[in-house]
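Please, structure for the following, as tokens.
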Amino acid sequence: MLRRLLCLFLLVATPAVADWKDEIIYFVMVDRFADGDPSNNEGVNLENPLAFHGGDLKGLTERLDYIADLGATAIWLTPVNQQGPSIEVAEGTFQPHHGYWADEFNAIDPRYGTEDDLRALVEAAHARGIKVLLDVVYNHVGYNATWTKTRPHWLRQGAECGGDAITLCLAGLPDLKTERFDVRSAILDAHIGLAERTGVDGFRLDTYKHIDPDFWAAHRVVTRLRLGEDFFLLGEIWDGDKYLAKAPFEADTLDGIFDFTFRDHVQKMLTGIEDPERFARYFTNRHDIEGDKVLAPFLSNHDMPMLLAMMRGDTAKLRQAFALLMFAEGPPVISWGEEQGRRGKAWPLNREDMDWTGGDTALTDDVKALIALRRAEPDMRGGPVQTVYAANGLLILRRGAVTLALNLSDTPVPVVQGLGKRVLFGGDPMALAPSGVAIFAAD
């Protein structure tokens, strides 16, 4: 009976998430962004890339004007639950600065701040027209978390860990038995209760594929009942693309997923591994998905080296990548400092602190211009993509009246006349520089 009611609810309820297709999401790892309250800097060690570095919710709130000036319209912030103990690894003492090792779901870690701080952040963001997407974890708790002693029957550990995606103890973390009603009730109430009290606009759902679909069906029902039909659910499915999105989109348990293949194809093309013709085939078909669901493209995240590091610091190619990001269907995601040329290498160096001295200001200005252009030109946000030309080191794509041209070669190339008259971004499309980019309109 319960399953039938859940299915009926999912068929009738229709989420109002279409506006998320037009959002520009700025991703912040709270601990690595800005320190607004030095009094909560417990265990901070700036010399250790695995330690807490002092960033907190007050610091993020104080820097909202920077994010708004960049042009972002939504913030995704890492989990803020009370974290568990540190662990020792080969690289040194690993503190849970990232927020993914929860110890208590009903409390905020004081190193990030308080629930009042989160509420104040949301209110300040909303005052600037910025939505807030809170990262939440339903799959596991932290190493040696309190529940491993007080509620071991709620967890899979050791020999109980299975070999499939659902019963796997990811990275050896104690795995929550979300199939149990008491476990499900406790964690749903904790996360959804926090959202109710603070007014966040959606969840970024960590490790989506490691939890049973029945849990996500129940999750959708409860979030809609308690948080409203427009509460946005963005899932992390590693290597996610339109094919892996098919099942959760058809089941309507997610509104969107991160498009991992976008970064992969962009990196391969800009480093010469993939030719422009193959990239164009991918790009023109990547967003062929269910209804009003979204694939969120990104260039970098906190679990991989920054794209700039993979391109050996070539900021000209990063500009091209940003142009593609802003030309793609779905809400683009920018990782903190990426717009300044943050060049985080392999873990743990990919989680550098935000550089508040300014970084590459010329790159930042170009990213601002691209964001402003996407927001001003509806054709850059929706509608089919056509391949105009993709060969000989030149890629030209068109969406409506807007055309994007990339010179992937190391020599200047002219772009075919008649494609556009008004230059919107970049250099002269009639003499496109090596690694150059131009966006122009037909009028």
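The radius of gyration is 22 Å. The chain is about 30% helix and 20% strand.
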